[in-house]
């Protein structure tokens, strides 16, 4: 067994299922966006210098990275047979050393040093100079590794497409494939969260509240819905990229596509602007400047929320409530229908309540998991009682606003029997109370509106509210 050659292993998308440079980029973006902009300026000095400066400004925890089990197992078996393993990567030397130290599987570690970007032909020249051509096996993952494989004894691939595999075989040497390339659309669908689009039904609320039956108005609202859904998906992807470290220690969120490594971070980085621009193209069909301005405000608010506000106590709940409300304003702007003071007041209080319920559910998870504080948030586990009180009180005020509206002159213009609508106050009182109770018991999903769409009792409440409204009209 002593005749085994050196086993050289790449890091990005080989040993780990993600790319450290994108891990570093999004880690820096989530902690200090201004520092990231300064680091990006070092790109002019070359990739090696950029990686070195980025590594100095972030703290990647090797324990939080998602490792490729097939590669790790192969290295362990290699070492058990008496072989020597080295980590050779284009990632900065400091991060490569920390990763190797965490795993304890490598005899030597070589990475980019600020002057030399250890990738492609540069990596091949380094390995040949140190170990000699044909005296090492190399595990890699991409087209850039072809020069390294060409001088290796054995080319070992990870996740290559059939086309790239053919190129490796054309080199003429011994080839081994550790894992098949996965090309499933499911992780990408999961990342854009189409189930969350149910929240965007709120853009139709101004039409419903005004009893508008115009086909043109509903068509405009539909395009607004599609625009909002795609733009919101861009935000979801952005949030997942910014929350990588927090998601990986969360009991449920660790299975998200980016946190689990099911989707390369590089793909996610391009999905953010791609979804945004596609959504705005649908927004152009609305042909109302006010709608596009609201969409710009929505995206700006979500950016500020993702980068800053979500860490601020109470402010994060206010921001979430405003994002819910903006959907209603977007529907009004898309259809040209004014938003009444009553609808505005009701939406503020009911959405503040739902945003508080969302936080309450997260705090319950924290207490159950034994963590004292929410990572990346401004709350501790003991705050759940106060947050639940906020959710209840704001929800009850929303019901009060509805009760006052039922006694206003405006209600008589839309309903023949407005007194019948008092039944909806009782339904809403029950529903708000139950939502808070579900969050208290740890049953609430991450978003209360999505939970309500899935929840059978909530759907019954919605049907009952619709029946009462029809009874009030007839």
What does this structure look like?
This protein is α/β, with parallel strands linked by helices. The protein has two domains: 6-179, HAD superfamily/HAD-like (Rossmann fold, 3-Layer(aba) Sandwich); 190-473, Farnesyl Diphosphate Synthase, CATH 1.10.600. 61% of the residues lie in helices and 7% in strands. It is built from 23 helices and six strands. It has a six-stranded parallel beta sheet with strand order 3-2-1-4-5-6, sandwiched between helices. Helix 12 packs antiparallel against helix 15 (265-284), helix 16 (289-307) runs antiparallel to helix 17 and helix 18 (341-369) packs antiparallel against helix 19. The longest helix is centred in the last third of the chain and has 29 residues, at 341-369. It is elongated and about 90 Å long. The model has no long low-confidence stretch (mean pLDDT 87).
User: Structural class, from secondary structure content?
Assistant: alpha/beta
Give the overall shape. Answer: elongated
Report the end-to-end length measured between terminal Cα atoms: 88 Å
DSSP strand count: 6
- The tally of structural domains comes to 2
Return the string of H and E elements. Answer: EHHHHHEHEHEHEHEHHHHHHHHHHHHHH
Which residues sit in consecutive blocks of at least 5 with pLDDT less than 50?
A: none
* Secondary-structure arrangement, i.e. CATH architecture of the largest domain: Orthogonal Bundle
Mean pLDDT: 87
Alpha plus pi helix count:
23
The CATH topology of the largest domain, please? Answer: Farnesyl Diphosphate Synthase
Strand content: 5-15%
Percent helix = 55-70%
Spatial sequence of strands, sheet with the most strands:
3-2-1-4-5-6
User: Which sheet architecture does the biggest sheet show?
Assistant: 6 strands, parallel
